[in-house]
Design goal:
The structure holds 2 protein chains of 2 kinds. Chain A is of the alpha+beta class. Chain A contains 6 helices and 5 strands. Chain B has 2 domains: 114 residues, Uridine Diphospho-n-acetylenolpyruvylglucosamine Reductase, domain 3; 111 residues, Enolase-like, domain 1, CATH 3.30.390. The mean pLDDT of chain B is 94. Chain B is α+β, with helices and mostly antiparallel strands. Chain B has 12 helices and 13 strands.
């Protein structure tokens, strides 16, 4: 099969790979660019674990072929921390125990990053709506929602969500 | 288009990929050739067009959802958009892709059928033709498109003054495909119903227009008591399937309830606006 050169800007850095056109963005990020923070769960768009930002918008990297997004800006979970220091959202998730096994966490954090960029002070129902496409099998979601509210507005809102 | 003409049935058009790629991943579809419409220019637009709103096939669902023009001109479409999948799906999924995919429980086909939208099909050999939505959807995931045709545009009639709309769904989980759903667009002229469109989905292999229920509403004062009979008519007009998620009788019950709710909501809205 013919391979295609794919150039992407991933977390602000120009990256390129020569890939089969059948390869999903998730697989290219993980296999070719060695960014294994993006997790692949269901591989058909249901679980949300593979969520990344494509030109700032949350999208399923398992439902997107890498060749479809040539030239795009991609942000993955590796792009959130700054020089090894957790960003405020990551810190809020740690503080609220917003994850357990951590498999779904990258997808959640990218979806939340998109939400907060669009709506920096979401209400609890807005948070739940935005996260409705991400599946977590450990937490029961409560601590994740609290983490988002904490990141968005400080701990006073977070406690009232309980 | 030449590629499509060359490969015909062996090819699939890739729009936003939010329905097709899962089918590929699950090996439910295995076309030899995938043609990506993402690089085709000029298919991403929303514009007024002679009493209609014309929407290009590659317009993202999220763009339609957030469009003020869609909200003011085709409110039923606006109402349906947030019910499609999840945010991340709507960021990539397209209006044309969902229409051409023709899932029997998808929202956009329901709106198209309810409003008598027109679908533009384009082929490299025969140029463009217009297909009424009522003839476009032919069965489960089956449309009137020929193997060498691509859906390039959908035109929705602009809602007249006094029109209220509602889209009511019953889903097992938020964002899931609807078990069943009812869409209503009702125009009120001088305190009485002048035009009513009711469509149900999840009850057949295509969206079902409930003509008897619509007829029963014409000239009627929009009071809650007036909606019982049309809702029952809509329910008895359909023969939904039974599956793991619910029996046929349960779906019929849901249709009756959802149509009634949709009528109540849609007829309340023009009053709220004035």
């Amino acid at each position: 099969m013919n391979t295609i050169d794919v150039e992407l800007t991933v977390n602000g850095e120009r990256r390129s790979a020569t890939v089969d056109p059948r390869k999903t963005l998730a697989d290219v990020l993980r296999d070719d660019l060695e960014l294994t923070g993006t997790h692949v769960g269901c591989e058909h768009g249901v679980c949300g674990a593979c969520t990344v930002l494509i030109d700032g918008q949350a999208a399923r990297s398992c439902l997107t072929f890498a060749v479809q997004v040539r030239g795009s800006q991609i942000t993955t979970i590796e792009g959130l921390a700054n020089d090894g220091e957790l960003n405020p959202l990551q810190q809020a998730m740690v503080d609220s125990h917003g994850f357990q096994c951590g498999f779904c966490t990258p997808g959640f954090l990218m979806q939340i990053t998109a939400l907060l960029a669009d709506n920096p002070t979401p209400s609890e129902p807005e948070v739940r709506e935005a996260l409705s496409g991400n599946v977590c099998r450990c937490t029961g979601y409560q601590s994740i929602v609290v983490g988002v509210l904490r990141a968005a507005g400080g701990s006073s809102i977070a406690t009232s969500a309980h | 288009m030449a590629l499509l003409a060359e490969h015909g049935d062996d090819a699939k058009l890739l729009a936003g990929g939010q329905s097709l790629v899962p089918l590929l991943a699950l090996r439910l579809a295995s076309p030899s050739v995938l043609i990506d419409l993402g690089s085709v220019p000029g298919l991403d637009y929303i514009r007024g067009d002679d009493g209609h709103l014309a929407i290009g096939a590659m317009t993202r669902e999220r763009t339609v959802e957030r469009s003020d023009l869609v909200k003011s001109s085709v409110p039923l479409l606006s109402e349906a958009m947030p019910l499609i999948g999840h945010l991340a799906i709507r960021n990539r999924g397209t209006l044309g892709g969902s229409t051409a995919h023709a899932d029997p429980s998808a929202e956009i086909p329901a709106v198209a059928v309810a409003l008598d939208a027109q679908v533009t099909a384009t082929s490299s050999k025969r140029g463009e033709r217009t297909i009424p939505a009522s003839q476009f959807f032919q069965g489960f995931f089956t449309t009137a498109l020929e193997p060498d045709e691509a859906l390039t545009q959908v035109r929705f009639p602009v809602a007249g003054p006094g029109t209220g709309v509602a889209f009511e769904e019953a889903t097992r989980r938020h964002g899931d495909f609807a078990m069943v759903a009812a869409a209503a667009a009702v125009r009120i002229d001088d305190g009485r119903i002048g035009d009513a469109r009711i469509v149900t989905i999840g009850v057949s292999d295509v969206p079902v227009r409930c003509r008897e229920a619509e007829q029963a509403l014409i000239g009627v004062e929009p009071l809650a008591s007036a909606f019982e009979e049309p809702s029952s008519l809509a329910a008895s007009a359909c023969d939904p399937p039974s599956d793991l998620h619910g029996t046929s009788a349960y779906r019929k019950h849901l249709i009756r309830v959802l149509v009634r709710r949709a009528l109540e909501k849609s007829t309340r809205r023009p009053k709220e606006q004035t």
